[in-house]
Design the sequence.
């Protein structure tokens, strides 16, 4: 039936996964910036999107200093 089809559709599969992955990431970013219950609170922009921001400071050993600076800049309770 589909033997004489000149285009191999299995070549589209990687593109479908890539486009799906991009759409998923875009959807998560939009949700976290606009619809998440914590989105109305101030803070660093990158920290609103991903946890890599604080993981970087934890890896460097400056997480406590970064959180202190964020509390000074954006307000909030100091532990």
Sequence:
């Amino acid at each position: 039936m589909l033997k004489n089809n000149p285009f191999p559709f299995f070549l589209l599969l990687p593109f479908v996964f890539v486009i799906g992955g991009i759409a998923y990431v875009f959807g998560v970013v939009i949700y976290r910036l606009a619809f998440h219950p914590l989105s109305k609170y101030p803070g660093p922009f990158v920290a609103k999107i991903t946890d890599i921001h604080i993981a970087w400071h934890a890896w460097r050993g400056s997480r406590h200093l970064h959180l202190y600076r964020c509390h000074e800049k954006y307000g909030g309770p100091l532990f």
Observations:
- DSSP finds four helices and no strands in the chain.
- The mean pLDDT is 88.
- Residues 12-41 form one domain.
- The helical segments are 13-35, 45-49, 52-60, 63-74.
